[in-house]
Amino acid sequence: MIGASSGFGVEFARRFAARGDDLVLVARRSEPMAALAAELLASHGATAHVVPLDLTEPDAPARLLAAVAERDLAVHALVNSAGFGSFGPFAATDPDRIAREIALNVTAVTVLSRLFLPALLAAPAGVLLNVASTAAYLPGPNLAVYAATKAYVRSLTEAIWAETRGTGLTVLALSPGPTQTEFFAAAGSDGFKVGQILTVAEVVDVAFHALGRRNPPPSVVAGPLNKLTAVVAGLVPRRVSLAVARRLTAQ
Protein backbone atom coordinates (compact mmCIF):
# COMPACT_ATOMS: atom_id res chain seq x y z
CA MET A 1 0.00 0.00 0.00
CA ILE A 2 1.89 3.05 -1.28
CA GLY A 3 1.03 6.28 0.54
CA ALA A 4 -0.26 4.48 3.62
CA SER A 5 0.24 7.29 6.13
CA SER A 6 -2.91 9.25 5.22
CA GLY A 7 -5.83 9.71 2.83
CA PHE A 8 -6.55 7.10 0.19
CA GLY A 9 -3.72 4.84 1.30
CA VAL A 10 -5.18 4.45 4.79
CA GLU A 11 -8.69 3.75 3.51
CA PHE A 12 -7.46 1.24 0.92
CA ALA A 13 -5.44 -0.50 3.64
CA ARG A 14 -8.54 -0.81 5.80
CA ARG A 15 -10.61 -2.22 2.93
CA PHE A 16 -8.01 -4.81 1.95
CA ALA A 17 -7.51 -5.81 5.59
CA ALA A 18 -11.29 -6.16 6.01
CA ARG A 19 -11.38 -8.74 3.23
CA GLY A 20 -8.65 -10.78 4.92
CA ASP A 21 -5.46 -9.53 3.28
CA ASP A 22 -2.17 -8.83 5.02
CA LEU A 23 -0.42 -5.66 3.91
CA VAL A 24 2.84 -3.84 3.34
CA LEU A 25 2.47 -0.17 4.30
CA VAL A 26 4.80 2.28 2.57
CA ALA A 27 5.24 6.03 3.11
CA ARG A 28 7.76 8.51 4.49
CA ARG A 29 6.23 8.80 7.97
CA SER A 30 6.56 5.68 10.10
CA GLU A 31 4.47 6.75 13.12
CA PRO A 32 1.08 6.99 11.31
CA MET A 33 1.77 3.67 9.61
CA ALA A 34 2.64 1.99 12.91
CA ALA A 35 -0.65 3.23 14.35
CA LEU A 36 -2.51 1.97 11.28
CA ALA A 37 -0.78 -1.42 11.53
CA ALA A 38 -1.92 -1.75 15.14
CA GLU A 39 -5.47 -0.78 14.15
CA LEU A 40 -5.60 -3.33 11.32
CA LEU A 41 -4.35 -6.10 13.58
CA ALA A 42 -6.89 -5.27 16.29
CA SER A 43 -9.83 -4.76 13.92
CA HIS A 44 -9.23 -7.46 11.30
CA GLY A 45 -6.41 -9.67 12.49
CA ALA A 46 -4.35 -8.46 9.53
CA THR A 47 -0.57 -8.30 9.68
CA ALA A 48 0.78 -5.05 8.29
CA HIS A 49 4.50 -4.69 7.58
CA VAL A 50 5.67 -1.07 7.93
CA VAL A 51 8.34 0.03 5.43
CA PRO A 52 9.26 3.74 5.77
CA LEU A 53 10.56 5.03 2.44
CA ASP A 54 10.87 8.38 0.69
CA LEU A 55 9.66 7.44 -2.77
CA THR A 56 11.15 10.57 -4.31
CA GLU A 57 14.54 8.87 -3.91
CA PRO A 58 15.60 7.07 -7.11
CA ASP A 59 16.42 3.74 -5.44
CA ALA A 60 13.29 3.61 -3.25
CA PRO A 61 11.26 1.24 -5.50
CA ALA A 62 14.14 -1.24 -5.66
CA ARG A 63 14.58 -1.01 -1.88
CA LEU A 64 10.90 -1.79 -1.41
CA LEU A 65 11.15 -4.82 -3.68
CA ALA A 66 14.15 -6.00 -1.65
CA ALA A 67 12.29 -5.45 1.64
CA VAL A 68 9.38 -7.55 0.39
CA ALA A 69 11.74 -10.30 -0.76
CA GLU A 70 13.58 -10.29 2.58
CA ARG A 71 10.27 -10.91 4.36
CA ASP A 72 9.39 -13.65 1.85
CA LEU A 73 6.04 -12.01 1.10
CA ALA A 74 3.82 -12.86 -1.88
CA VAL A 75 2.40 -9.67 -3.39
CA HIS A 76 -1.08 -9.97 -4.89
CA ALA A 77 -2.00 -6.27 -5.14
CA LEU A 78 -0.19 -2.96 -5.58
CA VAL A 79 -1.95 0.31 -4.87
CA ASN A 80 -0.02 3.46 -5.81
CA SER A 81 -1.85 6.22 -3.97
CA ALA A 82 1.01 8.52 -2.92
CA GLY A 83 1.36 11.89 -4.60
CA PHE A 84 1.37 15.64 -4.18
CA GLY A 85 0.80 18.72 -6.29
CA SER A 86 2.07 22.27 -6.77
CA PHE A 87 -0.25 25.21 -7.34
CA GLY A 88 0.71 28.46 -9.03
CA PRO A 89 2.22 29.71 -12.30
CA PHE A 90 4.72 27.27 -13.75
CA ALA A 91 7.33 30.04 -14.12
CA ALA A 92 7.16 30.70 -10.37
CA THR A 93 7.23 27.10 -9.16
CA ASP A 94 10.32 25.89 -7.30
CA PRO A 95 12.31 23.63 -9.68
CA ASP A 96 13.29 21.31 -6.82
CA ARG A 97 9.64 20.85 -5.89
CA ILE A 98 8.82 20.10 -9.53
CA ALA A 99 11.52 17.43 -9.59
CA ARG A 100 10.19 15.80 -6.42
CA GLU A 101 6.63 15.96 -7.74
CA ILE A 102 7.63 14.17 -10.93
CA ALA A 103 9.74 11.67 -8.97
CA LEU A 104 6.79 10.68 -6.77
CA ASN A 105 3.84 11.02 -9.15
CA VAL A 106 5.52 9.62 -12.26
CA THR A 107 8.84 7.86 -11.68
CA ALA A 108 7.89 5.97 -8.52
CA VAL A 109 4.54 4.86 -9.95
CA THR A 110 6.19 3.67 -13.16
CA VAL A 111 9.08 1.80 -11.58
CA LEU A 112 6.98 0.25 -8.81
CA SER A 113 4.42 -0.94 -11.35
CA ARG A 114 7.16 -2.51 -13.45
CA LEU A 115 9.04 -4.12 -10.57
CA PHE A 116 5.97 -5.73 -9.03
CA LEU A 117 4.18 -6.61 -12.28
CA PRO A 118 5.66 -10.13 -12.57
CA ALA A 119 4.39 -11.01 -9.07
CA LEU A 120 0.99 -9.49 -9.79
CA LEU A 121 0.69 -11.44 -13.04
CA ALA A 122 1.61 -14.65 -11.21
CA ALA A 123 -0.95 -14.06 -8.45
CA PRO A 124 -4.30 -15.88 -8.69
CA ALA A 125 -6.23 -12.59 -8.86
CA GLY A 126 -3.68 -9.80 -8.99
CA VAL A 127 -4.56 -6.11 -8.78
CA LEU A 128 -2.65 -3.05 -9.94
CA LEU A 129 -4.39 0.18 -9.00
CA ASN A 130 -2.81 3.57 -9.71
CA VAL A 131 -4.44 6.74 -8.43
CA ALA A 132 -4.61 9.42 -11.12
CA SER A 133 -6.96 12.44 -10.90
CA THR A 134 -9.69 14.24 -12.78
CA ALA A 135 -6.84 16.62 -13.64
CA ALA A 136 -5.61 13.84 -15.94
CA TYR A 137 -8.34 14.73 -18.43
CA LEU A 138 -7.34 18.34 -19.11
CA PRO A 139 -4.14 20.42 -18.83
CA GLY A 140 -4.39 22.56 -15.71
CA PRO A 141 -3.28 26.18 -15.71
CA ASN A 142 -1.67 26.92 -12.31
CA LEU A 143 -1.35 23.19 -11.67
CA ALA A 144 0.50 22.37 -14.87
CA VAL A 145 2.94 19.80 -13.48
CA TYR A 146 0.36 18.00 -11.35
CA ALA A 147 -2.12 17.68 -14.22
CA ALA A 148 0.64 16.48 -16.53
CA THR A 149 1.84 13.84 -14.06
CA LYS A 150 -1.69 12.52 -13.55
CA ALA A 151 -2.32 12.40 -17.30
CA TYR A 152 0.81 10.26 -17.47
CA VAL A 153 -0.45 7.94 -14.71
CA ARG A 154 -3.76 7.49 -16.48
CA SER A 155 -2.10 6.82 -19.84
CA LEU A 156 0.45 4.40 -18.40
CA THR A 157 -2.15 2.45 -16.45
CA GLU A 158 -4.56 2.17 -19.36
CA ALA A 159 -1.72 0.89 -21.55
CA ILE A 160 -0.80 -1.76 -18.96
CA TRP A 161 -4.50 -2.70 -18.81
CA ALA A 162 -4.47 -3.32 -22.56
CA GLU A 163 -1.19 -5.25 -22.49
CA THR A 164 -2.34 -7.59 -19.72
CA ARG A 165 -5.83 -8.41 -21.00
CA GLY A 166 -6.65 -12.08 -20.54
CA THR A 167 -3.99 -12.68 -17.88
CA GLY A 168 -6.23 -12.55 -14.83
CA LEU A 169 -4.63 -9.32 -13.60
CA THR A 170 -7.01 -6.45 -12.91
CA VAL A 171 -5.52 -3.05 -13.74
CA LEU A 172 -7.29 0.20 -12.89
CA ALA A 173 -6.58 3.93 -13.01
CA LEU A 174 -8.69 5.70 -10.39
CA SER A 175 -9.35 9.40 -10.99
CA PRO A 176 -10.76 11.21 -7.96
CA GLY A 177 -11.78 14.82 -7.99
CA PRO A 178 -11.05 17.04 -4.97
CA THR A 179 -11.19 14.92 -1.83
CA GLN A 180 -10.78 15.93 1.80
CA THR A 181 -7.32 14.55 2.58
CA GLU A 182 -3.98 16.05 3.60
CA PHE A 183 -3.36 16.75 -0.10
CA PHE A 184 -4.43 20.41 0.05
CA ALA A 185 -2.19 21.15 3.01
CA ALA A 186 0.75 19.51 1.25
CA ALA A 187 0.01 21.50 -1.91
CA GLY A 188 -0.28 24.71 0.08
CA SER A 189 -3.42 25.78 -1.76
CA ASP A 190 -7.14 25.14 -2.10
CA GLY A 191 -6.85 25.89 -5.82
CA PHE A 192 -7.12 22.17 -6.53
CA LYS A 193 -10.70 22.10 -5.25
CA VAL A 194 -12.29 22.05 -8.69
CA GLY A 195 -15.14 19.64 -9.28
CA GLN A 196 -17.46 17.46 -7.23
CA ILE A 197 -15.99 16.93 -3.76
CA LEU A 198 -16.28 13.38 -2.38
CA THR A 199 -15.14 11.76 0.83
CA VAL A 200 -12.21 9.36 0.85
CA ALA A 201 -14.60 6.48 1.56
CA GLU A 202 -16.80 7.40 -1.42
CA VAL A 203 -13.81 7.44 -3.76
CA VAL A 204 -12.57 4.08 -2.52
CA ASP A 205 -16.10 2.70 -2.91
CA VAL A 206 -15.91 3.65 -6.61
CA ALA A 207 -12.58 1.84 -6.95
CA PHE A 208 -13.78 -1.38 -5.34
CA HIS A 209 -17.00 -1.33 -7.35
CA ALA A 210 -14.92 -1.13 -10.54
CA LEU A 211 -12.52 -3.85 -9.36
CA GLY A 212 -15.46 -6.12 -8.60
CA ARG A 213 -16.99 -5.90 -12.08
CA ARG A 214 -16.87 -8.96 -14.31
CA ASN A 215 -15.03 -6.93 -16.96
CA PRO A 216 -13.34 -4.05 -15.13
CA PRO A 217 -12.64 -0.88 -17.17
CA PRO A 218 -9.12 0.50 -17.63
CA SER A 219 -10.00 3.66 -15.71
CA VAL A 220 -12.79 5.18 -13.69
CA VAL A 221 -13.66 8.71 -12.56
CA ALA A 222 -15.09 9.10 -9.07
CA GLY A 223 -18.29 11.13 -8.90
CA PRO A 224 -20.96 11.53 -11.60
CA LEU A 225 -20.34 15.27 -12.04
CA ASN A 226 -16.60 14.72 -12.31
CA LYS A 227 -17.19 11.98 -14.88
CA LEU A 228 -19.40 14.31 -16.91
CA THR A 229 -16.74 17.03 -16.75
CA ALA A 230 -14.09 14.59 -17.98
CA VAL A 231 -16.27 13.54 -20.91
CA VAL A 232 -17.12 17.13 -21.88
CA ALA A 233 -13.45 18.16 -21.66
CA GLY A 234 -12.68 15.64 -24.39
CA LEU A 235 -15.45 16.89 -26.67
CA VAL A 236 -15.14 20.67 -26.71
CA PRO A 237 -12.37 22.51 -28.59
CA ARG A 238 -9.10 22.60 -26.67
CA ARG A 239 -8.97 26.41 -26.64
CA VAL A 240 -12.40 26.53 -24.98
CA SER A 241 -11.67 23.86 -22.38
CA LEU A 242 -8.38 25.52 -21.45
CA ALA A 243 -10.07 28.89 -21.08
CA VAL A 244 -12.61 27.35 -18.71
CA ALA A 245 -9.88 25.54 -16.80
CA ARG A 246 -7.90 28.76 -16.44
CA ARG A 247 -10.89 30.52 -14.86
CA LEU A 248 -11.55 27.61 -12.51
CA THR A 249 -7.97 27.49 -11.27
CA ALA A 250 -7.31 31.24 -11.20
CA GLN A 251 -5.45 32.47 -8.14
Overview of this structure, please?
The protein is α/β, with parallel strands linked by helices and 251 residues long. Helix content is 49%, strand content 11%. The protein contains 9 helices and 6 strands, in the order H-E-H-E-H-E-H-E-H-E-H-H-E-H-H. It has a 4-stranded parallel beta sheet, sandwiched between helices. A two-stranded parallel sheet has the order 1-2. Strand 3 (77-80), helix 4 and strand 4 form a beta-alpha-beta unit. Helix 1 runs parallel beside helix 2.
Quick gist of this model?
This protein is α/β, with parallel strands linked by helices and 251 residues long.
Secondary structure category: alpha/beta
Shape designation: globular
| Major sheet details | 4 strands, parallel
Average pLDDT, all residues: 91
- As a percent range, the share of helical residues equals 40-55%
Q: Roughly what fraction of the amino acids lie in strands?
A: 5-15%
Number of helices: 9
**What are the segments in which pLDDT stays under 50 over at least 5 consecutive residues?**
183-189
**String of helices and strands:** HEHEHEHEHEHHEHH
- Strand order within the widest sheet? 3-4-5-6
- C-alpha-based Rg, rounded: 18 Å
Strand count: 6
Distance between termini? 34 Å
